[in-house]
Design brief:
Radius of gyration of chain B: 18 Å
Number of strands of chain A: 13
Shape of chain A: elongated
Shape of chain B: globular
Number of helices of chain A: 12
Helix content of chain A: 40-55%
Order of helices and strands of chain B: EEEHEEHEHHHEHEHEE
Helix content of chain B: 25-40%
Number of helices of chain B: 7
CATH superfamily of chain B: P-loop containing nucleotide triphosphate hydrolases
CATH class of chain B: Alpha Beta
Distance between the termini of chain B: 37 Å
CATH architecture of chain B: 3-Layer(aba) Sandwich
Strand order of the largest sheet of chain A: 3-4-8-5-7-6
Number of strands of chain B: 10
Oligomer: heterodimer
Structural class of chain B: alpha/beta
Largest sheet of chain A: 6 strands, mixed, barrel
Largest interface: A-B, 26 and 27 residues
Strand content of chain A: 15-25%
Strand order of the largest sheet of chain B: 6-7-8-3-9-10
Bound molecules: adenosine-5'-triphosphate, magnesium ion
Strand content of chain B: 25-35%
Distance between the termini of chain A: 30 Å
Number of domains of chain B: 1
């Protein structure tokens, strides 16, 4: 083994430029795969933490009729807040939200919206609801940036809102946009109008009722409550996992290309080498190597390539990845086009596990690739190898 | 069998499959070489010189008959035993030198000693001795592509001799060399044969080589056509 290490080292160093080219290609695969995976992890992390901050907190109770995909269920999905939550709500650790279908008339156009009643003093969401605690000429409301752009609304604008109360009676009033927020979370922004809960209770004649109850603490054991469906955080963020999975699937093509590149580097050193180096192989055998020992030597060379690639990759990869984690990667297209929370700049997350698993995958793949020529060597006739006759 | 014999070949036949039939490269060879010989297999191209040398070198096996080399029967050695025989007892010299191009002269010569797991200090001394024999101590750090053909073959001789093998097998060692270089390396080999009592077996059709041989075994169409000793042999002039 020591001899093989020494000889493999000499072969690599002796081959000079060729070795370094392969090592650089290989290290490039390592770094790019780690970077890509880091972006995905960073996205996942960012999407989930944005959802937590703007939309779902530590989890929610949904009224049993509520269906987030069907706005027409809203007229049915509200009920009095269960008494058992009063204390938690009073402490600010649970935020009830009532949702009512409505229509806005910005500049005479008609836009259907969801009116969300929320306590202006809540601090569970990052929503600037404290701005709702003002007296203006109409009902104070906050809306998301996407909605504001969509409806060409600006801070201070007055706009007519129409809704239907619990009895099915239509009514209308003016709201004043007191603040516009930007959240990266489409579900918290798109066609949503936030107004004080008390006001919505009065408007809709649904005093004390709610559609969603969002709690802060995701770790606490939660009881099932009659008429309400418990939606733990994992369930609510499952859509992120699902979408990221499809995005990751698209990326696998990229991984495969990178792995192919890595394999090419190894292919060049290992597979082509048994043709290029067959005379050398014959010489090793004439000098007293068994074919198995030649295979061992080639495998050690391959492993050294991988290790060198890891070292070289670390040399430029660590500063690059560290810089990326700090500076973030700005997506070169409009992030709003994605179906899930996505910031324009993603801060990749690189875990030790990610780095180790990537390095392992690449090392395993390259070793497997290097095994193919080894079998050929093991079958090689030394006299023919010496003559360099094998095709 | 004769225990003084370093090589003993009995009724050896070697044939290669050729499509449906087979081609007989060596047929019914009987030969015996003793320690210290400086002998050549001589014959035209295709007469089976390399084939016989390869069998003696345990790189190939007989189809039938027996080849004993240093008291080991080539046909019945395992791959590992054959490798061990080559590693410990045999030296090879090839027509095209077969040096490791990316290794230095020193490393090339050191190679067989690494396989024998000789320690570094001892290795260094043995390599320098071998390079001294061939007169290349000033090229230790060069790599084969920087050397002339004659120098390359001298490195190959040093590599074959460095472990002081019992038997050196040299296949057309001068085929790529000019006359001056040919004589130089042949004189080196004669000297090593006399000083170290190493047995040399050549395969050649080069008159320059033939002129140095003490025993000439002529092969023709895979058979021994003639086997003669040189009567009044002069050593290095
Ligand atoms: N592996 C093989 N398969 C088929 N035929 C072979 C093989 N090896 C050698 N031969 C044939 O056996 C014969 C003897 O070959 P060998 O190489 O021993 O000749 P040689 O005397 O060394 O010739 P040269 O002087 O050209 O080197 C040749 O006709 C050759 O074609
Ligand atoms: Mg030949």
């Amino acid at each position: 083994m020591k001899t093989a290490l020494k000889l493999a080292y000499r072969n690599l160093v002796g081959a000079g430029l060729r070795t370094w080219l392969n090592v650089i290609v290989l290290s490039f695969s390592f770094v790019v795969i780690i970077w890509l995976k880091g972006i995905m992890m960073g996205w996942d992390y960012q999407a989930k933490s944005d959802m937590t901050d703007w939309q779902i907190g530590g989890g929610q109770y949904w009224h049993e009729q509520y269906d987030s995909f069907d706005p027409f269920t809203l007229s049915e999905s509200h009920a009095v807040i269960p008494e058992q939550f009063n204390k938690e709500i009073a402490l600010g650790d649970m935020v009830p939200m009532l949702m009512v279908q409505g229509t806005l008339y910005p500049q005479g156009r008609m836009q259907s919206v969801t009116i969300k009643g929320i306590d202006p003093h809540q601090n569970l969401f990052l929503l600037p609801t404290h701005r709702l605690d003002t007296v203006v000429d109409g009902i104070p409301a906050i809306i998301g940036l996407a909605t504001a752009q969509d409806m060409q609304l600006e801070k201070g604008d007055l706009v007519t809102l129409r809704w239907r109360d619990a009895n099915g009676t239509f009514d209308a009033t003016d709201i004043v946009v007191v603040d516009i927020f930007s959240s990266n979370v489409p579900a918290a922004e798109a066609s949503q109008v936030y107004i004080p809960l008390q006001t919505l209770w009065e408007m809709s004649d649904m005093e004390g009722e709610a559609t969603l109850l969002t709690f802060r603490d995701e770790d606490e054991e939660r009881a099932e409550v009659q008429g309400w469906v418990l939606k733990p955080k994992e369930v609510l963020t499952a859509s992120v996992d699902k979408i990221l999975k499809t995005k990751t699937a698209g990326q696998s093509v990229f991984y495969i290309i990178l792995l192919l590149l890595a394999m090419l580097a190894i292919f060049d050193t290992q597979v082509l080498s048994i043709f290029r180096r067959q005379k050398e192989i014959g010489t090793y055998i004439a000098l007293g190597y068994t074919r198995r020992e030649v295979v061992g030597l080639f495998t050690v060379e391959c492993a050294m390539h991988s290790i060198l690639a890891v070292l070289v990759g670390a040399l430029y990869g660590i500063p690059f990845l560290a810089w990326q984690a700090k500076a973030g990667w700005t997506i070169p297209m409009d992030a709003g086009d994605f179906g899930i929370a996505m910031a324009q700049t993603i801060y990749p997350v690189f875990s030790i596990g990610l780095i180790i698993s990537t390095v392992l995958i690449v090392v395993v793949v390259t070793t497997v690739v290097s095994y193919w020529p080894s079998r050929k060597i093991a079958k090689m006739n030394p006299t023919e190898a010496l003559r360099g006759r094998i095709q | 069998m004769d225990n003084n014999a370093i090589i003993q070949i009995r009724e050896l036949t070697k044939s290669f499959p050729m499509g449906k039939s087979k081609f007989t490269a060596l047929s019914n060879i009987n030969l015996s070489l003793e320690k210290g010989e400086f002998t050549g297999l001589i014959g035209p191209s295709g007469s089976g010189k390399t084939t016989l040398l390869n069998i003696v070198g345990s790189l190939d096996t007989p189809t039938s008959g027996e080849a004993w080399v240093l008291n080991q029967s080539i046909g019945s050695l395992s791959a590992k035993e054959a490798a061990r025989l080559r590693k410990e007892k045999l030296g090879f010299i090839f027509q095209s030198y077969n040096l490791l191009a990316v290794h230095t002269v020193f490393e090339n010569v050191e190679f067989p000693l690494l396989l024998l797991k000789i320690d570094a200090a001892e290795r260094k001394k043995m390599v320098m001795d071998a390079l001294e024999w061939v007169g290349l101590t000033d090229k230790v750090k060069s790599k084969p592509p920087q050397l002339s053909g004659g120098e390359c073959q001298r490195v190959a001789i040093a590599r074959a001799m460095v472990k002081r093998p019992s038997l050196v097998l040299a296949d057309e060692p001068t085929a790529n060399l000019d006359a001056a270089n040919s004589h130089h390396i042949l004189q080196t080999m004669v000297k090593l044969n006399e000083e170290l009592k190493t047995t040399f077996l050549f395969a050649t059709h080069d008159d320059k080589v033939i002129g140095y041989l003490r025993r000439k075994i002529y092969l023709l169409d895979g058979k021994v056509a003639n086997d003669e000793w040189v009567k009044d042999y002069h050593t290095v002039k």
